[in-house]
Write a structure and sequence with these properties.
- Two copies of one chain form a homodimer.
- Chain A is of the alpha+beta class.
- The first copy, chain A, folds into two domains: 141 residues, Jelly Rolls; 79 residues, Arc Repressor Mutant, subunit A, CATH 1.10.10.10.
- In chain A, a hairpin with a 2-residue loop joins strand 10 and strand 11.
- Helices cover 38% and strands 22% of the residues of chain A.
- The radius of gyration of chain A is 19 Å and the shape is globular.
- In chain A, the strands form three sheets. The first copy, chain A, has a four-stranded antiparallel β-sheet with strand order 1-8-3-6. In chain A, strands 2-7-4-5 form a four-stranded antiparallel β-sheet. Chain A has a three-stranded antiparallel β-sheet with strand order 9-11-10.
- Chain A contains seven helices and eleven strands.
- In chain A, helix 2 packs across helix 3, helix 4 packs across helix 7 and helix 5 crosses helix 6.
- The N terminus of chain A is likely disordered.
- The longest helix of chain A has 24 residues.
- Chains A and B meet through helix 3 of A and helix 3 of B.
- The structure holds a DNA duplex.
DNA sequence: CGACGCTTTGAGGAGATTCAAGACACGTGG
DNA sequence: CCACGTGTCTTGAATCTCCTCAAAGCGTCG
């Protein structure tokens, strides 16, 4: 697997540290072997750049190697709606799968590096790799569960939403092997508020409130969870 | 296909008036032929009875022949959350597909009659009928688009939500061949409000307001859309 | 180190909720 | 067929949460 052109050791699905979490999840070794030949690796976007635009044709599933992304939709007045945030190690692109046209725009919140599994390869995989279809279907049906969760959250107070947001980010980072208690938010208060359906001033007031209760420490975008239990009870209450 | 035990002509996927809208959608004739042998038909539930419960194992996809259903989840205090309403001709059960356990409870809002495509038949179909997998995947990826739509709606005023709700029901009934301008709401104000994330009193006030503007006529649950254009502009505004 | 964008903080106001009470519809039994 | 009771729907008044607008403080990056 040595490649004279590569300045570093080539990163493949085999040695990628996301291997248990990304597309290969649930595939056996030979299936991963097949997958790694089909994936376009080491794609880069700088902060603010798009990975794909709403309306563009679906080109395949993307796995974030590093960096984070916001997934946007636009309302009838052209205002951004932050549909989701994608963290390192997570997948995106599913918004284009139904109609083969992207429903959302994906924008890098910081420099990102990603892998890309093209559409025609997806089709090939679903034919040759039985397990792959299962993963794709489960993954997309999972959206239903996610939807219910979001629906419940939209009934809650602004404070509960912010608590849930922080805990959710924390959990997702933990799964990928990052620190669950101390991390940097890569999105603005505006983007958080937009995502949660509250004003950015409200986000500000609430994180300040959590800080005064010694639940978190927050300075600009650097966040430290001091009392996770209390934060959780805030959300569960 | 004659059956001495059947008192009426047996209803199959061939003569079902939902044939273009239900599971066979997108399948060719021979594929429909295969499907109709696998489906359990003519299941009945009375008003208030469950079709499946949250936590029960996934048994397959259900196609509503007649009647309507509410799809519920429950919050941490056991309060109902009305996740969705399912109208005649529509499918349900997808909330169990991801984890093979139902995430929601489906309750009949009136007497319902439904078909049932069992899990093992789904698996068989995905192997033997290439088109079926595509439909299932598209259908479930579609949940992503639905999620974005709901997210947008949750940002809007109570009035806009109610307008959107009425128009949405109207559109769905129209697709199934029912009157789009005059129909009976099978759910209570409470259930509508719950679904839209507003109080039932607010629903009441708003439909009354729409009536005073001569946009709709509503008497108890019987609804007549007088000025669809105006209703739409209310929603689009 | 200066400028711009992001974040914080305050004051006032709008929209929706909650609570409460009365009107209405529907199904049941007499 | 009508009276009755229960659950649903309507309507009003007070309250509250969160938003909007405005201005000042802070951070970050050229």
């Amino acid at each position: 697997m040595s490649n004279a052109l590569a300045t570093k050791t080539a990163i493949t699905c085999d040695n990628c540290n996301l291997d248990k979490l990304c597309i290969p999840k649930g595939l056996n070794r030979s299936e991963v072997g097949e997958l790694k030949l089909l994936v376009s690796r080491n794609n880069i976007r700088q902060k603010g750049e798009a990975i794909y635009h709403a309306g563009s044709s679906f080109r395949g599933i993307i796995a974030l190697r590093s960096g984070s992304v916001k997934l946007l939709s636009f309302d009838r007045h052209g205002n951004e709606i932050v549909v989701d945030f994608i963290l390192p190690g997570e997948l995106l692109g599913f918004d284009g799968m139904s109609l083969q046209v992207h429903n959302c725009t994906a924008i890098a919140l910081e420099t990102v590096n990603f892998c890309h599994l093209p559409t025609h390869q997806i089709e090939a995989l679903t034919l040759n790799t039985p397990g792959f279809y299962q993963i794709l279907l489960q993954r997309s049906c999972n959206q239903f569960d996610v939807q219910v969760q979001k629906m419940m959250l939209s009934r809650r107070s602004a404070e509960e939403r912010v608590a849930s947001f922080i805990l959710h980010i924390s959990d997702r980072l933990k799964i990928r092997g990052y620190s669950e208690l101390e991390f940097r938010l890569t999105m603005s208060r505006e983007e958080i508020g937009n995502h949660l359906g509250i004003a950015h001033e409200t986000v500000s007031r609430i994180v300040h409130h959590f800080q005064s209760l010694e639940i978190i420490e927050i300075k600009a975008r650097q966040l430290k969870i001091i009392n996770k239990k209390k934060l959780f009870s805030f959300y569960k209450e």
